[in-house]
Amino acid sequence: MSERILLAHGSGGKLSHELVEKTMLRAFFNPYLSKLDDSAILDLSGRLAFTTDSYVVDPIFFPGGDIGKLAVCGTVNDLAMVGAIPLYLSLSLIIEEGFSQDDLRRILDSVRRAAEEAGVEIVTGDTKVVHRGKADGIFINTAGLGVVPEGIEISGSNARPGDKVILSGPIGDHGIAVLSRREGLSFSTELESDVAPLNKLVAQMLEACPRIRCLRDPTRGGLATTLNELAKQSRVSIQLEEEKIPVREEVRAACEMLGLDPLYVANEGKLVAIVPDSDAATVLHVMHQNPYAREAAVIGEVRQGRPGRVTLRTRFGTSRIVDMLTGDPLPRIC
Amino acid sequence: MKFIDEFRRLELAQGLAGRIRQNSKRRARFMEFCGGHTVTILKHGIRQLLPPTIEMLSGPGCPVCVTDNADLDKAIALACIPGVILVTFGDMLKVPGSRSSLQKAKAEGADVRIVYSSLDALELARQNPDKKVVFLGIGFETTAPGIAASILQAEQEGLKNFYVLSLHKLCPPVIRALLDSGEVRLHGFILPGHVSAIIGSKAWEFLAKDYGIPGVVSGFEPLDVLQGVDMLVSQVENGESRVEIAYRRGVKPEGNLKAQELMYRVFEPCPARWRGIGEVPDSGLRLRPEFARFDAELVFSPDPGPTLEPKGCICGDILRGVKTPRDCCLFARVCTPENPVGPCMVSSEGSCAAYYLYGQDDE
């Protein structure tokens, strides 16, 4: 049996130091962290983007990723969605007494790899251990700092009638991958979560078209909820074309079985971009070169219409409203 | 896994819709009995494909919606008995009863668990020998056989802590009651595919024989529903009334005899209260006397107190096809899926929820 995390690992005493030195520093060695001062001192200038998110996904390891990768990608993507270049992350762990040290190392390794891919450094962190039963394995919080380059103005309130809505790839993979692991559903091909850092994709898109109006990653609440937010913030309506929205067969089949709508299922490696009509082809071309957006497609357009209203033209040529997610059909997917 | 697209093919849908528009001359009002059909119709905008001669009304085919407040209160009272684990399908959780809901009872400390199958409830009973596990049996002929099977299983295993509150309902008797009331004039029924897979299309023959109204058993994909409407239209135009199957991949005239046998080995018909409709003879299922020790109602005699109906809510009228959600002054203003006043806004098969979520584009 592997070694377990003890309450003393979070007490601030010897075992805490051992954990930091043996595990954390080894995983994330960098000059900011290795100083072991109370705060990291960073030299940054310009417009800073700052965000935070907590991760409580159940199960901790799921097809295509784990809570560690999610904790980096989620925060990196939130920075990227305002056009920022993500630079530094904090990493706080709340661990339940008795958690496997092997699993912890596996999670930290996954944090390290995701951070490397995204090009961000973990510069500060904290570990707390709580009594057995007071947490569920491990919870992670990350906060991120990034710099927004000159001339980039991205906001959910920028969409204009006539703009095109671009989606970077098939929806629902993350939610269904997590849920199928949890509920013991299996498919002929194993569906993997799409969890991925999107900052490089965003940088390429912005280089090709600095005038991108809105970016958002459709995580909890799915594509439908994200588009409702954008339509409301920008006081426009959005019309989607059902047939243009990519959904994998496995995801559709699982959704049929579970009574879910893929439009409301979470993603962790997808983005929605709203761009001026004249730039849509250019942005799409750039996206197709990036491994995380090979299946990017224009899925609809922004219209004058009723502010905040999202509609869907079905494959039969009829149309219906697409509302925000109500309730919580899939708890703890991120 | 291309099966979903097969039933959503554009050219087939357009062909069917075109034929319906061409053939439909007389005004006709059809009821889709099942909430699943209402959802398909709204989610895929099928009404927009139909000619103005055809009116589609939602029926009482949503088990959560038709559960009477008195029965719901009973379930909540059971959940509040110390040592009881109340096990239910998720949709019931948020439905407001007279004074509380299962969700509120849970927040106040009652042990309420959600499962996807009655077999999970059996498992809970095995794992918690010191607790009393009560399964909330809600559903039509589709769910009753499965619950009958779990009761037989419990008997075989000698499980002493498994009980069922049987609020099951039977579909044909309630349609008869609707027609006998004479409140709504109907020219045809889209009949429930899944229920008919168990009871068979023969169980609906009375529609044609006693009432002269055609019925078509339909599946739940958009093409299934369109095909059902097409078949109804051609009967109406030809002045015919027969019960037909547009869902041959799932339904046989005699139904699933094994499931029927299982269901009636454990249950027997009894009068049941339907929300908005009242008591309908032989429209419910109760446990047979030899299974009385599994009957939560007999064992625990829950006392929920007097029943109150939500003020202003017209779920009852909607379930009878007399009104639509848009006729309700609470709809989308006071009553939303987040803050439901009545059950039709809670259930994923409820008419109000379907209208709210997919309501046609009115621009």
How would you portray this structure in words?
The complex is a heterodimer of chains A (334) and B (363). Chain A folds into two domains: 7-148, 60s Ribosomal Protein L30, Chain: A (2-Layer Sandwich), CATH 3.30.1330.10; 164-321, PurM-like C-terminal domain (Phosphoribosyl-aminoimidazole Synthetase, Chain A, domain 2, Alpha-Beta Complex). With 334 residues, chain A is of the alpha+beta class. In chain A, helix 3 runs parallel beside helix 4 (101-118) and helix 6 (199-208) runs antiparallel to helix 9 (280-289). In chain A, the strands form three sheets. Chain A has a seven-stranded mixed sheet with strand order 8-10-7-11-9-12-13. Chain A is 31% helix and 23% strand. Chain A contains nine helices and 13 strands. Chain A has helices at residues 14-27, 31-34, 67-80, 101-118, 173-183, 199-208, 222-234, 249-258, 280-289, and strands at residues 47-55, 61-62, 65-66, 85-96, 121-130, 138-148, 164-167, 214-216, 237-241, 272-275, 297-303, 310-313, 319-321. The mean pLDDT of chain A is 92. Helices cover 39% and strands 18% of the residues of chain B. In chain B, helix 2 runs parallel beside helix 12 and helix 8 crosses helix 13. Chain B is built from 16 helices and eleven strands. The longest helix of chain B is centred in the middle third of the chain and has 16 residues, at 222-237. Chain B has helices spanning 3-6, 10-23, 35-43, 63-66, 69-79, 102-107, 118-127, 144-157, 171-181, 193-199, 205-211, 222-237, 257-266, 296-300, 315-319, 351-358; strands at 28-34, 54-61, 84-88, 111-114, 132-137, 162-166, 188-192, 215-218, 243-245, 267-274, 278-287. Chain B folds into two domains: 27-314, Rossmann fold (3-Layer(aba) Sandwich); 315-356, no CATH class. In chain B, strand 8, helix 12 (222-237) and strand 9 form a beta-alpha-beta unit. By secondary structure, chain B is an alpha/beta fold. In chain B, the strands form three sheets. In chain B, strands 2-1-7-8-9 form a five-stranded parallel sheet. Chain B is globular. Chain A binds chain B through residues 183, 188, 237, 249-250, 252-253, 256, 259, 305-306, 309, 311, 314-321, 323, 326-327, and chain B through 1-4, 8, 10, 13-14, 17, 42-49, 94, 116, 222, 336-338, 348, 356-361, 363.
